[in-house]
Amino acid sequence: MSLVVFLIVLGAAALHASWNAVVKNGRDTLLTTILVASTAALMSAAMLPFLPPVAPAAWPYLGLSALLEITYYVLIATAYRLADMSRAYPLMRGTPPLIVATVSTFALGIGLTPLGWGGIACISAGILTLALSGRGAADGRGLGFALLNALVIASYTLVDGLGVRASGAAASYTMWIFVLTGTPLALWAAWRRRDVFAYAAHNWRSALIGGVGTLASYGLVLWAMTEAPIPMVAALRETSILFGTAIAAFVLREKVSTVRIAAVLIIAAGAALLRLA
Predict the structure, then answer these.
(1) According to the model, what pLDDT value does residue 134 have?
(2) Cα 247 to Cα 152: distance, rounded to the nearest angstrom
(3) Residue 135 carries which DSSP code?
(4) Are 26 and 73 spatial neighbours (Cβ–Cβ below 8 Å)?
(5) How far apart are CA 211 and CA 35, in angstroms?
(6) Which of 98, 85, 217, 111 shows the shortest CA–CA distance to 150?
(7) What's the confidence (pLDDT) of residue 177?
C-alpha cells in the first residue's frame, strides 16, 4: 500500500470516528443518525449533476449497498442507545476486517501477503480486546445489535469494494450510495416521527458535521479500494477505533483502562504492518 493511500485511509478513519461520536452524543440516536444520513444525501444530490455517470454494471451493487447501509444506520443507532460507544464501537468494527479478508481470499481470489494477514489479524485482535475488556454501560441486546451490525458492515464493504471498481467513477458511486440511503431514511422520519423537524432545527450543526464526516470518510475509503486491495483498506479503516477511543475518553468522558491502551498499541502495530505489506 502506498504512503498516500495509507495516509488518506487514516484520515478517513478519523472522520469516521468523529461522526460516530456525533451520533452517540445525540439526545435521540436514531433521529441523529437519520439527520446525518439525510444531510449527506442532500450534499450528494447537489454534487451529482457535476460528476460523470456510473457505469451500468455498478447499479446492482448500488441497490444492494443501499439496503445494507439503511440496515447499518438503524443498527448503529440502536446499539448506541443501549451501550457505550467504547463497548459497541469496537464490536462493530473488530470482526469485519477478518470476514472481508477471508471472503476476498477464498471467494474473490484477492490474495494477501503474510504481512497483510498479520496486519489485519493485529487490528482485529486489538479492537476485539477493547470490546471484551470494557465495563461501560451495555446490556446483551446492545452488544447483540453491535455484532449483527458487524456482519452488515462486512457485507456492504465487499459489495461496495466490487461496485466502485465496476463504476468507473468512484466519486459518483459514493454520492449515489448516500442519495439511495439517506432519502428513504428521511422519508421514514418525516412520516413516522412528528418531532423530526423540531429536532433538526435544534441539532442542525450536529447533522452538518456528521453528514460531512460520513460522506468524506466513506468516499475516501471507496477511492482507496480502487488503488489498493479491498481487505487491506477495510482493515486499515478500522483504525478509526484509535480515534474513537480518544473521543470516548476525552470528549464523551468514558473510562479508558490500561488494557484498552495496550489494545490500541496492538492496533497501531497492525496498521504499521499493513503499511509495509
Answers:
(1) 58
(2) 24
(3) -
(4) no
(5) 8
(6) 98
(7) 95
